[in-house]
Amino acid sequence: xxxxxxxxxxxxxxxxxxxxxxxxxxxxxxxxxxxxxxxxxxxxxxxxxxxxxxxxxxxxxxxxxx
Length: 66
Fold this sequence. Notes:
The protein is an all-alpha fold.
């Protein structure tokens, strides 16, 4: 039997994809994986990146932004 994807399922999938991407961006900045997973939906990774690019340690940048 073929499964039917509803609009709600598609949104959930899209949200998961976006969240995973945010996690990977935070990890690329030097945030540990478990911490990245916790904060991916809570912070704007662009703000964290901006601080890191200006020399702020990644975990401190995350604390400042959150």
